[in-house]
Amino acid sequence: MNLDVENWKRFKLKYLFDIKKGKRLTADEQIEGNNIYIGAIDANNGIANFIGQAPIHKGNTISLSYNGSVGEAFYQENDYWATDDVNALYSRYDDFNKYIGFFIVSMLRQEKYKFSYGRKWKLESMKDTEISLPIKYNPNGSIFRDTSKKYSKYGYVPDFEFMENYIKSLHYKPLTTKNRPENALPLNIEKWGEFRLGDIFECSSTFSLVKSDLDEAYGGGGGNVPFISRTTFNNGCDGYVEVEAKFITKGNCISIGGEGIYAFYQKEDFATGTNICVLRNEKLNQYVALFVCAVLNHEVYRYSYGRARNLGRVENETIKLPINHKGEPDFEFMENYIKSLPYGDRV
Question: Could you tell me if 262 and 119 lie in one domain?
């Protein structure tokens, strides 16, 4: 399908959505539960935690950060609590759905370059922000105009049907799994034990490199060594570089970026930027690591850019893990649990 962006029109968000604010809920106030908590973050579809408090916003809406990771937009299928740094966008189109949501999210993200932590996307500014969208036409090819001017003061109407069909038309091969959700192993979290990371993992820092320096030194970039930085995207990988062997960190470990906060499993050997630490354990493999990373990433709300997850804090961080009959971390169970999950057979 042809996007034909030259014929799109600009729409103010206040005509497309009812924009509602989130509500502050500190880490100390949060109670354990299964309800989605959306934070002002740029990863994990905005999900920062799961809480016991009842949702304050409905699903089938878009969460949009105006502070923190300003401009990060995500479609939220389920009901959720949004922090006070996030606004919820309720569509005025009655048949709004996830496909339209995905399309509009991509347009919203085109606007985030205008804002930053120091230049917040305040509510009134957000309401008046314009995004470009395809519009409806009459059968004779003329622009359809709505006399009620619901979506635009000029009477333009977004072509929601086109947006939905465009997203559906994108080519991808669905991933399949033989594992059934009901066959996943029970977690029994109440029986887990607490462990200091430094007691169960070898925690260490890595060589601090600057990617742009490597690119310049080796003739404009390229290479086949993953460069792991403090980014929260793409498993922490910020591209590929050429680098001397002495600066390469061995794989089969968990990497954590200080300010990036999130933990990722690194299967292959890699190079790193500044303030990256790694966790190693002789029982570690991709399944165990995915389990541990999920637990570690459940704790990210305790950290921020001003309170980095550096080596010292990582070593002293306490997490809960399944235990065996000896009271030790049950790495065998962790591996089997990941394998039992839907798509665990595709890891």
Answer: no
Is residue 137 domain-shared with residue 258, that is, in the same domain? no
The DSSP bridge pattern shows strands 237-241 and 253-257 to be unpaired
* Judgement on whether residues 255 and 300 belong to the same structural domain of the protein: yes
Other Cβ atoms within 10 Å of 254 Cβ, number:
24
The pLDDT tens digits of the residues spanning 264-320 come to: 999 999 999 999 999 999 999 999 999 999 999 988 878 876 788 999 999 999 999
Structure tokens at 117: 């932590």
Examine residue 81 and state whether it is found in any structural domain, yes or no: yes
- How far apart, in Å, are the Cα atoms of 322 and each of 14, 15, 156, 281, 312? 48, 50, 57, 16, 24
Which candidate, 48, 45, 46, places its Cα nearest to that of 25? 48
How far is 243 from 221, CA to CA, in rounded Å?
Answer: 10
CA atoms of 75 and 97, how far apart (whole Å): 9
* Residues 6 or more apart whose Cβ sits within 8 Å of residue 104: 16, 62, 131, 133, 163
Instruction: Point out the domain boundary residue: 146, 169, 192.
Output: 169
d(CA 236, CA 226) in angstroms, rounded, equals: 9
**Rounded to a whole number, what is the distance in angstroms from the first to the last CA of the chain?**
33
Q: Please state whether beta strands 318-321 and 193-196 pair in parallel, antiparallel, or not at all (unpaired).
A: antiparallel
